[in-house]
Amino acid sequence: MKHRRRTKDLKKRATTVGLVLRPLGVPLVGEGVAMLACLIPSLHYADGSHWRILVAALLTIAVGAALLRALPRQAASGSSDRRLSYLTVTLVWLVMTLFGTLPFLLAGIERVDAAAGLSPLNFRFSISFVDAFFESLSGLTSTGATVFADVERLPASLLLWRSLTEWLGGFGIILLVLAVVPSMGLNKYSLYTAEASSADNTGKTSTSMRTMVQQTLVIYASLTLFFVVALMLSGMTLWEAVNLTFTNISTGGFSIYADSIARFTPTQQYILAAAMFLGGVNFALLYNFFTFRWRRLRHKLDQFGFYLALTLAGIAFVVLSLHSRNGMALADALRCGIVQTVSVVTTTGSVVGDTNLWWTPIVLLFLVLNLCGGMAGSTTGGLKVMRVLILLRSVRTTLANRLHPNAYNPVRLNGRPVSDEMVTNVMVIFIVFVITMLVGVLLLMLCGVDATESLGAVFGCLTSYGPGLGSCGGFGSYAAFPAAAKLLCSTLMLLGRLECLTVFILFLPGFWRNR
């Protein structure tokens, strides 16, 4: 009897391990295929990194294929244990990041003189593991923070790899898997909400999860193709258009140039701003708009209206401030104000000027806009405007109830009452965000980073904006940060991308208890 029970427990554990590890296979294979795409610029520009990228790609594909082959396919109905979804999502992001470091590490190998005693193997890594992990996670979380002070010195293969990580991560690794895999043995909606707890279900339809994600992918890919063509027609090369479309439609912000997007023409910057803005719009709304399903748009109008109003108000303030306080010509102030404000609201991180030199109230406004972010169900970071709107309307409702205690004044969104549970969840996420920011600033200061840069780095990494304040703001980088600070910033990026709760849940004592 005891032996039978032990055998049953072992089978259950093996099934659980399979449910958690098997979903890692498809993302790793996909990541390896993306690495193979980096061979094209490597061979075209003869940067000498092609064999190293090939090794990284084949190793990643081999591990992914091994996981798919070794672990049995689970029942198509999916596990209802939400704990597995939270664990799987976190593991997918961490494992993808670890394998994403391979191109940086292998392409960063430098030969040295063995006689000098620098390395008995006659080579060394010019890019440290901490830097590679930071850059890989920054790309996959579409944060855009970088440790490379001069990205133009990187081989072409790594430049495209950085752009690809942002394009893949901007859409969401789990969402890509749900779009192409019929079943992973886990509850699809649990996986979806575990990756993005801001998942907008205010306008739920009968559309299946897989169909909805596939529709979103169609819009994402179509917008990518459209903006590549638009940028090429504006005068960009194919190389520039592809990389900058990948990093701006994903609201990531990496660039192939040290001055981000500042060197491009006003027309090209406006096109990139349009890509950022659409990247911050709910993809279900975009799909319904482009397929002429006008009736379904009303479910998102409150959020889109607030997102648009927030963006326009920010642009107006920044343009007037740059013109009156920083002495910019009106045309330049208009261009910088529009492009930079859209970049901030959508947490993209593309830069058109050194914002460290701008009027201080502009910088403070940018921090607030960073925290707000774009719409739920988009590629942006931050709290999302849906939550900010619910918070503001909760305040208004509370004040109204004080004045009329017997009246029924629910919080409404798109004309519908918002449940008390949703309001509570929004408040909890807001509180967790604030506490995480405060703790993050304190820990960065303990790592030796000054207060201003600590504040900027926490906002930049937790909201997925990327650039911070001081040396890591504007055209700067995180290169001067100590290793401990870089690891802490990497943690903040992951927390921001998974919106804190998904990761923090793993540390609850009850999470690991058998049920």
Characterization of the model:
This protein has 515 residues and is an all-alpha fold. It is 62% helix and 2% strand. It has helices at residues 2-21, 25-37, 39-44, 50-70, 82-107, 129-140, 156-171, 173-180, 188-195, 209-233, 238-249, 266-279, 283-290, 301-324, 330-345, 360-372, 385-403, 420-446, 451-462, 483-497, 501-504, and strands spanning 109-111, 123-125, 412-413, 416-417. It has a two-stranded antiparallel ribbon. Strands 3-4 form a two-stranded antiparallel ribbon. α5 (82-107) packs across α6 (129-140), α5 crosses α9 and α11 packs parallel to α12. It is globular and about 70 Å long. The relative contact order is 0.10.
Question: Helices, strands, pairings?
Answer:
Blueprint: H1 2-21, H2 25-37, H3 39-44, H4 50-70, H5 82-107, E1 109-111, E2 123-125, H6 129-140, H7 156-171, H8 173-180, H9 188-195, H10 209-233, H11 238-249, H12 266-279, H13 283-290, H14 301-324, H15 330-345, H16 360-372, H17 385-403, E3 412-413, E4 416-417, H18 420-446, H19 451-462, H20 483-497, H21 501-504
Antiparallel strand pairs: 1-2, 3-4
